[in-house]
Amino acid sequence: MKTNSQKIEQVKVIMIVNSSVKEAFNAAIQSDLSNIFKKYKSLPSIIGTDLTESWIKEGLVRTIFFEDDTQVTETLLKVIPHEFFSYKVENFTSTLRYLTTKIEGDWIFTKKNTNQTQIEWNYNIYPKNVFAKFLIKLTLKKDLHGYLTNALKIVKQNSETKKMNPNQFI
């Protein structure tokens, strides 16, 4: 019998940032998605969300809008300040609705030394079926890896240059 983990396709991005765990965590969780998610191959830029409060409380839900007039729903699942946060993305209106039921993401922050933090970003894609899994492996995973890597580079830069709103720190 197949386990759930055998059905999941994962994309993982790891990066070291030259800032404290607190600064790295806040730069990530409080990022303006339209500033970090730029078009990458088949994946469109994010142009905004409908969220009107800080994205720091478990259970918050926001709609994310893309440049191609599609959208998704994102729910913040768990937050452990300065260590970890996780979320799920679902209700795709793009062609992803044919490939996946949901994507679950998590960020893990690990102190490397006084002013260095490792960020590990995992993206777990739940294919709808075997054919969808094949297409995800063939194209989507590579595009998602580039999309997430580019976004994490911007988070890294924002963390290292302290380009964050200090009122949103947790």
Automatic annotation (TrEMBL):
This is SRPBCC family protein. It comes from Flavobacterium jumunjinense. Gene3D superfamilies: 3.30.530.20. SUPFAM superfamilies: Bet v1-like. InterPro entries: START-like_dom_sf.
